[in-house]
Amino acid sequence: MRSHVLSNLLQPGRSRLTAAATRVSNTHLHHCYSTVATYGVTQKDLEILKNELDHCDGEIIDPHLHIAPWFANGEELAAGLAENDVSLGLIYNPYPKDFPLPYDVNEKVFEIASTSNGKIFCLASLDATHDNWEEHKEDELNRLSHYLEKEHIVLGAKLAPPNTCLPLTSPIIGDILERLNDHDGNNKVLAVHIGTTPMCGPMGKQFGVKCLCSEEYINPRYLDSYVQAYPDITYAFLHSGHEFLPPDDENYHDFKFANECIQMAKEYPNVYLSLSAIFAQNPDGTLKYPGGFELVKKMKLEGVAHKVFWASDQSFVKDSIRPALIMAIKAMIEAGFTQEERTWSLNGCTRKVFRF
Predict the structure, then answer these.
(1) What letter would DSSP give residue 115?
(2) String of b and e for 66-77 (b: at least 16 CB within 10 Å)?
(3) pTM recorded for the entire structure
(4) For residue 264, is pLDDT > 90?
């Protein structure tokens, strides 16, 4: 989501702070880190959260975290999650297109996970943005395999097609999944961003970042043949096809691909859905991206509640994680999720998908 780019811009130790980063630090961060931001959390909300924690035996997992400037290592990240009533986390970042980083993404997330005292795990990625994929293919696939072998910490692979300008129709997808399927391990998991991103709108232009949100980058049906061909791979559809652009944007798809995500979760036993970023909020507690409550209701009505897991994708602003968690719980309650289904979403489903 948005934190992919912001974390890269503001990472401590970065050799050059771009003008875009300066704008973010002067405006967005001042607003987000304000001590008066309460996100509208009430005492009743806290009681709702306490009930869920009790049923989860005190363990809620957040499997969608990104590098952020408020933590320098896994211990600090784990402490911040604990402040938000989250016990375990899963961190990953993509290799962005045309945006050089002062660190290797896999090395960075693995280092964070390795310094967390067993509280943080990570996913591996690879750079699929090369203009000449065939020239870099083996090196990149080997990069992925190298980290997948560290399965005590690396729980699978991550792709972000819109953020890396990688079409789901590209043969690169097939190369990656073939390598993942050939991997001899218990971490044959692909977490893939399915849905638009605000970086496809004015925000991306502001930061000078190229992202693409037309159908070939976000339609999960382009993965149909792979899901069928590689049944031993578990597919986690991050964001579940949610809309993160306004209705007047040329890349607004009116939840068409969210519906496809739900249908694929019904059709395939190895497809699961994530609520990540869907309940991101403004500091006053209003949803940044409308439609989350309706989407969760449809998941319940379509009979896929047992295929849904909560995730925040809110680690860029530490204090926003718990409000996103509470809002997701309220959406599940309103949608008719049973207590057992909510507990499964907050803990059990994530354990099943990522094999914690």
Answers:
(1) T
(2) bbbeebeebeeb
(3) 0.90
(4) yes
